[in-house]
Structures are given as structure tokens and as C-alpha cells.
Design a protein that fits this description.
Aminopeptidase, 2 domains, 4-stranded antiparallel beta sheet, elongated, binds zinc ion
Length: 375
């Protein structure tokens, strides 16, 4: 099955997180035919597929996911989201760019390499999960990595196929990601009749000073690899619906995207300090979805850059922006991690698509990378 046919076939599967919905059933026999040994490890609601070929030596692992985010209103799509329609070299559908197309590029790269070369003291692995986009309650890839590590599995190099490219394929790679820390705050005031201001404490007034402070707060200055830590408010709710009641509570959800200059503990204590300095009454809960990670050794990064240069004739820039990725779990394996994938301008949007030509370029870069590492 070629890149185009396999990508279309995977897009046809409605694998909304945390469901693989049968993508692995398509992929696993292809990998086995190529000589990979594979196993599936499920945890909570997440399914994972780990396939490896080669008996010894360092391992290059391609990391990807088969789950996709919801489509949004289907009637807004020009090409139905699970159709995999092809127009002008672009294949359309939810997950085309993020990241079923690139999973297929991994597979075809390994296939072409193995048809023309034998593996000598080197291993190629493909690791796929069905809950990269979803919530931690369904489980992530971290539990599988703990199990693999316990079994003595080692992954020296990890190529994460997330859509890293900005304007031109392979113009940008990531060697790290910021951490993500979310919080839910409940500010507690005192409910009462709107005509009796001395008998109420309005949490909407209370929050105004808080927002002002948060908006101007500098959490850190960033560093050469990361932008400064950013704070954003995503949701805020208060009010009973009635026009003559001052509400007793206000709820606010917020998120930190934090760089390696701050830790989650530091941010939590600074945030609480602000609340305490303003004498606010509150309840607060936190959820840490990922710590920052950064590849500091340069061997693998340089091999990826050289491979890109060889195939495209240009040098990528290193940019560690964007959301977090499953690379954060791979950092626990002490792997050198680089993210390189297709353009990210349509991901999670209506009419998500990827250029088939770009996928072929990525495939060729991956073949070049395997050659450089394995031979
Ligand atoms: Zn993704």
C-alpha cells in the first residue's frame, strides 16, 4: 500500500481521541510484513502499538498518534472530514496533517529503507498511541513507556512526527516543548440583594484587581530555547442570571505555558501568593499536563538537520513553541528528541489537509535520517 492509499484509508477511520477505532488493525499487518515485531499495550482507555525491527544496537523510534480531534460542524467542511478526498495534491480530512499522513510517511520510509538495506547493529521502532490529543483521564503513552523501560527497552533517538513545519515543509523543527499547567479558581464573595451593597461581597469586583496583577506579572524571562512563560485565562463565569442579585462566587480557568526557567511548583506558589496578597477567599485546583523538555545533546539534532538539508537544500530553524506533545513522555526514556512533521496551518481546523508532495519529502528525509544513523 503506498503513502497516498494508506493515508486515505486511515483518514476514513473516525478515530476521535482516545479511540484508535481500528487504525492499528490496518497498520500492524503492514509492519509485520516488513519484519517488525509488534505488541499492543492498552492502559485505561488508550491503546498503544509498539513495533520494532532489528535485534541489537541503538534504536531510532518514530513516535506518532492515530487519534484525531473532533471535526467541529461537518457541514462547514468543503470536503467531508473522513473522506480523504484528494484535490490539487492535497489530501483532506481530520487527522490528515495531525498526524495520520505522517504516520504513513514513517511506515513508507522504513519500508523503502529495509527493501534496499539490511539492518546491522541498529533498530527501527514505530510507536503509536490513540490518545495524544485527549485528556489524561483516558491515559497517555506514559504508562506504556514505564512498562517498556522496565522491560529493558532503550530508545536513543526519537523522531516525533507532529506537524512542526510553518510555511514550507521541514522549515522548522522542535527540540523541546514548553510545559503546560492548568488551574481552576473559585473566588468566594458574598451573595445578596443588589440594592444593599454593604451586605454583599461582589466576586466580580474582586477579580478585577486579580486580573490586573496577573496580566502584568512577569513569571520569568525565558531563555535561548524558550519564550518567557505565558499565562492565559480561558473561561470565567459568575452571576445567577437574575438582575437583582450580586453573585456569591466566580469561577475562572487558566493555563500556564511554561519554559524551563520556571517549575510548576514555583508557578503554583507565585499564583497563590498573589491571591493571598489580595486577601482573597478562594478554592483552587491544579492539573499539570506536562513539564518542559529540551534535547541538550546535539548529535541527533545535527543528523536531522543534515537530512533535511540533503533532501530539501535548506536548513530548518529550531522553534520550541506550540502546544505540548508526547515527546514530553519520551524525555523520561532519556531519548534525544526532535520533532519534524508537515505544515501545521490547518491542524484542528475545518478542512484540515496535507500536501502529498510534502509527505513524500518528509518520507525522503526520514529515509536519509535512517541511513545516516544506521549505516
Ligand atoms: Zn498531533
Amino acid at each position: 500500500m503506498n503513502l497516498e492509499t494508506l493515508t486515505k484509508k486511515l483518514i476514513n477511520i473516525e478515530s476521535i481521541s482516545p479511540n484508535d477505532a481500528g487504525c492499528f488493525d490496518v497498520i500492524e499487518p503492514i509492519l509485520r510484513n516488513m519484519g517488525f515485531e509488534s505488541k499492543r499495550i492498552s492502559y485505561k482507555n488508550v491503546e498503544n502499538l509498539f513495533a520494532v525491527i532489528g535485534s541489537d544496537g541503538p534504536t531510532l523510534c518514530f513516535l506518532g498518534h492515530t487519534d484525531v480531534v473532533p471535526t467541529g460542524p461537518e457541514e462547514l467542511w468543503t470536503h467531508p472530514p473522513f473522506s480523504g478526498e484528494i484535490h490539487d495534491d492535497h489530501i483532506y480530512g481530520r487527522g490528515a496533517a495531525d498526524m495520520k499522513g505522517n504516520v504513513c510517511a514513517f511506515i513508507e520510509a522504513a519500508d523503502i529503507f529495509l527493501k534496499n538495506n539490511s539492518l546491522n547493529n541498529f533498530r527501527i521502532a514505530i510507536l503509536l498511541t490513540s490518545n495524544e490529543e485527549g485528556t489524561p483521564e483516558d491515559g497517555f503513552i506514559d504508562e506504556l513507556l514505564v512498562q517498556l523501560k522496565e522491560q529493558g527497552e532503550k530508545i536513543e533517538y526519537c523522531l516525533v512526527g507532529e506537524p512542526s513545519s510553518s510555511r514550507k515543509v521541514a522549515d522548522t523543527i522542535r527540540i523541546g516543548r514548553r510545559g503546560s499547567l492548568s488551574g481552576s479558581l473559585k473566588l468566594i464573595g458574598k451573595q445578596g440583594h443588589i440594592a444593599y451593597p454593604d451586605k454583599v461581597i461582589n466576586p466580580i469586583f474582586l477579580v478585577s484587581d486579580l486580573i490586573h496583577t496577573l496580566k502584568n506579572k512577569k513569571w520569568d524571562s525565558g531563555n535561548e530555547h524558550f519564550q518567557p512563560t505565558a499565562f492565559q485565562i480561558s473561561n470565567m463565569n459568575s452571576g445567577t442570571g437574575a438582575g437583582n442579585i450580586v453573585p456569591g462566587e466566580l469561577a475562572m480557568d487558566f493555563n500556564f505555558r511554561f519554559c524551563s526557567e520556571s517549575t510548576s511548583d514555583q508557578l503554583i506558589s507565585q499564583f497563590e501568593q498573589i491571591l493571598n496578597d489580595l486577601n482573597l477567599k478562594y478554592e483552587l485546583s491544579w492539573s499539570l499536563s506536562g513539564n518542559p523538555f529540551l534535547t541538550t545533546k546535539d548529535f541527533f539534532i545535527n543528523q536531522v538537520i543534515a537530512s533535511i538539508n540533503q533532501i530539501t537544500g535548506h536548513e530548518p530553524v529550531i522553534n520550541n513553541g506550540g502546544g505540548t506533545s508526547d515527546g514530553r513522555f519520551m524525555a523520561a526514556m532519556d531519548s534525544e528528541i526532535v520533532e519534524l512533521g508537515p505544515l501545521n496551518d490547518s491542524i484542528h481546523k475545518i478542512d484540515e489537509n496535507v500536501s502529498l508532495n510534502d509527505l513524500k519529502t518528509l518520507r525522503d528525509i526520514y529515509i536519509e535520517l535512517i541511513k545516516r544513523l544506521a549505516t
